[in-house]
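Hi D.,

Good news: the full-assembly prediction came through. Inputs first.
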Amino acid sequence: MKLIQRNIVPIVFLIICALGFKYSGLSWMFFANDLMTRLARNSFLVISLIVPVLAGMGLNFGIVLGAMAGQFAAFITIVYNLTGMAGFFIACALSVPFAVLFGWLTGVLFNKAKGKEMITGLILGFFANGVYQLICLIFIGWIIPVSNKALLLPSGVGFVNTLDLKIWQYAIDKFYVFKPKGIDIPVLKYLNNINFPVVTLVIVALLCAAVVLLFRTKLGQDFRAVGQNRHIAEVAGIKVDRVRIIAVIFSTVLAAWGQLIFLQNIGNVQVYGSHVQVGTFAVAALLIGGATVSRATIGQALLGTVLFHALFIVSPLAGKNIMGSAQVGEYFRVFVAYGVIGIALALHAWQRQTKKE
Amino acid sequence: MSVKNRLEMKNVSKEYYGNRVLKNVSFSLGEGQVLSLVGENGAGKSTLMNILFGMPVIHATGGFEGELFLDGEKVNIKSPEEAMKLGIGMVHQEFMLLPGFSITENIKLNREVTKDSLLSRVFGKPLKWLDMPEMRNDARASLDAIGLGIDEMLPVRGLPVGHMQFVEIARELDKKNIRLLVLDEPTAVLTESDAEKLLESMKILVDKGISVLFISHRLDEVMAVSDKIVILRDGEHVAETSPRETTIDKIAELMVGRKIESGAMQGRPPSALRDEYIIEIRDLSVDMPGEAVKGVTLDVKRGEILGLGGLAGQGKIGIANGIMGLFPSAGEVKMNGEPVRLNSPRASLGNGMAFVSEDRRGTGLLLDDSIEFNIAATAIQTSGKFMKPGIVTILNSREMGDHAREMIEKLDIRCTGPAQLTRRLSGGNQQKVCIARAITLEPSVLFVSEPTRGIDIGAKKLILDHLVQLNRETGLTIIMTSSELAELRSVCDRIAIVYQGRLEGILLPTDSDRDFGLMMAGEYSKFHGKEAV
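Then the structure:
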């Protein structure tokens, strides 16, 4: 009973997803393949939220800046036409300095707004979007020269809306695809004919292992100590501000890589849009997985990604079949996703208040 | 017997914003000895410890004067980290334990045993593995040393309070270089038997050559464990003694002793007061964080000025807040023989009680409103004063202004006019506005909490004089809560002392320093039997 109570959020979403799947009339194969693609594509971004949660800084809406860092790196590889897997990994490497810088700035800001990191991060995302647009729309082609005029707007200043990423699309997703066939074991036979992007999954698995192991190091212990009580950690001699900045930098770098994995699957960059929703979607996924503002695990991140994206897949068709309109399903999905964020935040505030009394 | 000096403080002084809280304090503590620091709240004990521990609050406010020597070496401690490196440990008044961590993790917090990992060779210490088995061994050893036989892997959340205090001491003991341990009221939250155990474990520390600085309000403990007792009063080192040379009541007298100018006591003898009770409090409990009241029974005479005194955290502040309905309370309060509904500020105000809060800038004033509105606000809400009658009642601003001008003159509020915002007033004048608002209600009982906190000396006297004048002229009953005993003794007719949420006893202002000291330390009844209550 307690188990159900503690995991009520993922359970409710599991039921909604199951019902949605039933009414959508989708075939299992289509559904599972789509889900697998989305899991590989998005889980990295969700996992990037875990470190700041455990360091007591709540849900880092500031990962939007990480996504921007990833996109800057992607632009560089596009301009210099670095292709294939090499191009992708060069993009990952190039994104690090950007992400470290952005993460450091975010961390410094968060330290000045202790206890209000979430709202600060959210607004910071909007502000950073303004700076990002300034750079991509005004500086590119004017201050920052770009030789390939096809990437620019007709005026010669600013990137076009959509940049093609065919140069390293599927660089890792399609490097080795495993497709099980002819499995004849109950349950497991549902895995037949599903495409596993093995390299991407291995990278995600490595990341999960790295996060788990991180929390068995001195630094991880410091994260957890600071997350529980800044004052006590400070008195114990832990450099709290420094630890918090490091946590945000971790998160931002992971988000940059996460965004690159996302882009290599999609195959193009919406220069002015790809990063905008990253923060809220990742946060919603993590919360749907059963995490809270102060507690999150790898398992919750992965489960949340699966449930959140399953809802993405089934809701338009389920909406169409039940209500006669795909729009209704779409509306329902958005309503639910943001509703979950709102409820989770309200629950957290409420729990903290009752604890105080 | 010559003992090497472990710690020496020489001429230490400290100022906070022009307010001198420590004045040339000097003392020394020998190796393997226990020195107790005793004194009232505000005597400067905490400031002294903050200096010793290099707390940021000291250095953010301009540092301190004087010198510190540790084992004969001059030290300059700028942060808690440096203090720890020098071998100074501290067990704080509030628990410094992380509830989500196990006992082991807490004991080894930020001093974890680590092993090399692949990445640590590149990135350094932060990425070293934690060596959990080794950490467990260390924690076990420290726990065994103080005789605490609980599992070292239990989470701290849910441990009994007594155990938590021991975990804190085990943590300090685990610091291998520890030379000096500061125990800041370690027994305040413990039961008697736990406190005894704790004092025993202190002896284990001392046997290891660790020096202990012990701060406690429990004077019998101080007598039991100390080699030396230093008494502070108003930031001054007033006496240094040892248990052999003194007694508890002598210490109590030294703690409180304060010259009160002859003739400054304005209280009236009991014979001058009517034996008629305006408020009868029975078994009042108030759930105010940090100032809990646990069953106070007290009668207030009509027309008297009653003082509520006691050390910080003992509950004196909670009484007025509870009766006025600002914090959840239970029990029975009667006014003029009629029961008062508790937990309802409105009911309390309606019964003719008014309150000047100790939290002047928080609960007391609408800082961004004018003086006139502040004075009128409560009366507008409760009794509809200053309103023009009609279907839609609107404020009668002329009446409000006139009233404010009258109050400004009467209480001598220094301001540019009734329209000035209260935020711009000095502390003393803000307090006068609070008092003016309370009087505007024309109450029959006035609760005043910490009326002179944070107010300069000149203004203090004015405010106290106003209160006495009010009482004498209108017969208003005043219940005044204050941390400053001298202030209570100068204006009150009777003074009730609160200790651990209960009434310890009622004294007259003319009673001896010794009696006040004993009562505030909760030792009075031991000396005087049951007669006190």
